[in-house]
Amino acid sequence: MVGDVLSDRYELEELVGTGGMSTVFRGHDRLLDRKVALKILHSHYTGDAEYVERFRHEARAVAALSHPNIVTVIDRGEHEGRQFIVFEYVDGENLKRLIERGGPAPVERALELALQVGRGLSFAHQRGLVHRDVKPQNVLLNGAGQAKVTDFGIARSLDVQQGMTQTGTVLGTSDYIAPEQAQGHRVDAHTDVYSLGVVLYELLTGEVPFPGENFVAVAMRHINEPPPSVRDRRPDVSPRLDAAVRRAMAKDAADRFPTMADFCGELEACLAELHGPAVTASRPQARAGSRRRGVSPWPVLAVLAALIAIGAVLAVLVIGRGANVFSGSHPSSGGAGGPPHLRAVTAYDPYGTNGENDAQAKFATDGVASTAWSTERYYDAPSLNKPGVGLVLDAGAGVQLNQIALTTTTPGFDAVIRAGDSPTGPFPDVVSDPQQVAATAQFPIRGGKHRYYLIWITRLGAGFQTARVNEVTAS
Asked: Does the annotation mark 262 as catalytic?
């Protein structure tokens, strides 16, 4: 009850909710003076050794999931025979409340939220844990709007047939239940893919795909009816995104995305497709503004530095071009100033936690083909389980490049060149077309002058768990 103190440490302050297996309270951790959330197993399960052990097992399993899109488990304990789990307290609304309050989300926001949920689920799948109860009520949004998945694995303690007799356990989740789960068949990671597809459908349309009057009616629709088209209700959604949602909700698990990481990869592609036209449209205005302000002296200084470094070529250039070299004119494509020197300075890993072999960056521009910068090892390859990771290149000053070329000993990875004003990001300008990199690759560069360029890797090559960049040059 509110006011109770568990294990002489956790004071129960407010009842947050109750479900078929447990009750959730907001509490106060007296030891560390912070808010926490406590999930307490219902008293009628405490005498069932199997349920108690499953509850403990799930607590241990979820405690090993350290991911920004998963609610963190802090502690587990027992108080007067009652099992409890202590979670971080997320001060915000859940995703269901957001949908009810705001209706259909903007396409970009819907994709971002689905990706955050998908990355958390994929992380759990890699560690052998399937959620089995993916629904917007189990996605919490913190003050920054970041999605955090909660209730991992708890539904695993109840199968569908048992759950239908437990108030609030499966009845509340039938809108998101996969066909195999509704039929009591084997449940695996494909089940979470289906349920996330339903959540994304609801984010985009404001409605669940298969409404019904009761659990059985809804479950039968999930089993028998083909997934509806998002575009029938939301024409501004791209055909590619519509197809991704329907594939995730395929009746046969084998027809869905093979893994949650693959589903995330397709959603990332949909998000990139959404961003592409906006980046292109904004570029002409920015360039026009820079012309009105006059030509920047930095490209000239960069060219002069290169000429001084190669005195013999300087003499030829002065004779051949005369005053043009020193007048502030921008060198022509592949012009007389020689190739600009790019220096790889660091890795860029905004969606990771521990950097990405930053100290190796220098090897990508050291002129030695046998050395390289490499991504970390990804065991769910070819997926990165995040939008991408990159290598930052410093041109020394704002320069307009014609091409960036690279060599690799891990061919087949997907990459694109981006640009920005800081080595720490962001890199908002997409300045090349994406391509699959062979042993050598050339990226034609469009747009204006930039100092920092980013080789942004979005997917690894088949058969490789890393991507290596051995040498980078530019013209």
From this structure: no
Tokens (6 digits) for 361: 């960056």
Q: Which of 133, 175, 349, 429 is catalytic?
A: 133
Which pLDDT tens digit goes with each residue over 139-148? 999 887 889 9
Calpha distance 363→369 (Å, rounded): 9
Let me know if residue 137 belongs to a domain.
yes
d(CA 293, CA 291): 5
In a domain, 366, yes or no: yes
- Same domain for 117 and 214: yes
Beta bridge partners of 70: 149
Q: Which domain holds residue 475?
A: 339-475
> Which residue's structure tokens are 């109750």?
18
319 with 369, same domain: the answer is: no
What's the domain count of the chain? Answer: 4
pTM for the whole structure: 0.56
Contacts of 390 (CB under 8 A, 6+ apart): 347, 348, 349, 418, 427, 454, 455, 456, 457
Has residue 279 been placed in a domain? no
**Chain segment 306-325, per-residue pLDDT in tens:** 444 444 433 333 334 333 33
